Amino acid sequence: MSVGALSRRSLAWVVPVLLLLVILPFVVEPYQTVLLSYGLVFAIAALGFNLLLGYTGLLSFGHSAYFGVGAYAVAFIVKYLKIESMVVFVFGGIAAATAVAAVFGFLCVRYTRIFFGILTLALSQVLWSLAFKFFWVTGGTDGLRVPTPKLLGGAVRMAVGPSADKQDFLSRRYYYYVLVLFIICVAVMWLIVHSPFGKALQAIRDNETRAEFVGVQVWHYRWVAFLISGAFTGLAGALWVPLNGLTTPDILHWQFSGEMVFFTVLGGFQTFFGPVVGAIVFNYLKTFAVGYTVYWQMLLGVVLVVLVLVLPAGIVGTVNRLALRLRGTPAT
Amino acid sequence: MDILLIHILNSLLYASVLFLIAGGLSLIYGVMRIVNLAHGNLYAFGAYTTAWAVGRALGNAPAASPALYLLLPVGALAAAAVGAVLEPTLLRPLYRRAEEYQLLITFGLLLILEDVLRLIWGPYPLSVSALYEALGSLSIGESIYPTYNLVVIVVGGAAALGLWAFIYRTQFGVVLRATSQNMRMASALGVNVNRVYIEAFTLGCFMAGLGGAIVVPQQGAVLGMGVDALILAFVVVVIGGLGSLEGALIGALMVGVVREFGITFFPEVELAVLYLMAAVVLLIRPAGLFGRT
Could you report the predicted ipTM of this complex, rounded to two decimals? Predict the structure, then answer.
């Protein structure tokens, strides 16, 4: 199937979904909106993560590093620079995560397959252990608190008051802030993967040797993909902190990287929107599982095992296949 | 001088347990090309099973009798049994699939096993320190050192030796090495690859379980011990080379020494130094010190 046809079909449901997202805070409980905000934040991380997994063919098991660096950058901005402006948070988070991704990526992209995975994991664990041990800087396992920020240079202020206002702030103003950034991220990532650069990445994924022979500088392209991926994930981390109010070393731990892989595969890493859907669904799934049973890890584990064995194409991939079959075209 | 000796003994203690875990991980990778993220949980499973079995036996006996030490291998056997079930049911369908899926399924397994431990033994730590205390301590110069730690070192050393003999001196070892070098060729020559895989996986799990079983009298069994151990085992196999047992031994010794001296002299960055060591080795020699590319 051609990309053009796919884009037109995607647009047909992107517009209604967007409308739904915009009116949602007026329809549902504030709690649901906050929950969805988490989902959108993870979706931004998933977009970045999938540029490596789905489009470049590199499985990182250390993306918690960039998410965590984004989050801790925000916490440090609050703690040391005493700034509480969201714009600074966003740019600070992206800059810090990109810088770390530049260094780590420089080391990692020379390898592929399992060595890439283990190297990214080892490097992310370095950051985790530092956040864990240097408690006088990072707060250790207590983490660092981040207050509710000022949006748009203080133009959108949070009413000073008790926690009910914080809920209101998060479920309305902050939700829209996240939503707008999410839409920008989707658009930018869409442009990236459909640009010549994106095509080159896919060529590297499909056949590294051939890509090299037609003149693609494999190493350089992978590194840039790593940078972009890290920047998106760092932005997600920066957006996540005000929502959570606290950042702890848990988000730097490799198990969080595992969750990122989980939701990307859950949605379907061979599709553009798969990781987005996967992240949002995973967030609901985890929230439900944690509330439903103390054995939530087992529930998630079973879902993952079943997914790998039965639905390796993920949610979006499977739906696409079903849709194609219904239309009578042979599935590819 | 005594202090140095004690540091060396402690390093050997870490190294013994790490070798048991990492050796199994490396063996499984060498034969099956699967990085088993759930490997640490099998170590924890061994620890919990032994703690539970010894605890039950202790409940009936007033004091720790020497016979209780015979219960230590129970954990290793239990972990081996779990491995023997997991390989044919969950891993076998995935050998032909991409590496991503193999990693993911073992990650799913990690999540499941973590909660299976919680489900069976509850959220509280189990301990069998009676076995640890019953052996008393030795005096080394002016310091004292727990005798049980020496037992762990001896078991670790014996396991390394036994494994070496098993792999380089038995018929099974030849078949195992052949399968590891070239699975298709071995299969064409009449080796039942499925059987070798299940045996290798079971052996790897046995070693992890043994590691857990001998460490539990000293440290107790807690939730999360598996995940922590897995990452250290990763560092070991990355340094030594995935799939190489000699590498796992050298890697375990290096990590043991660095950890011991790290905790003494630079506790804040001890873990970071270990991960950095792994990263540096990967950068200089991607296949590890003893690995094949």
Answer: 0.81
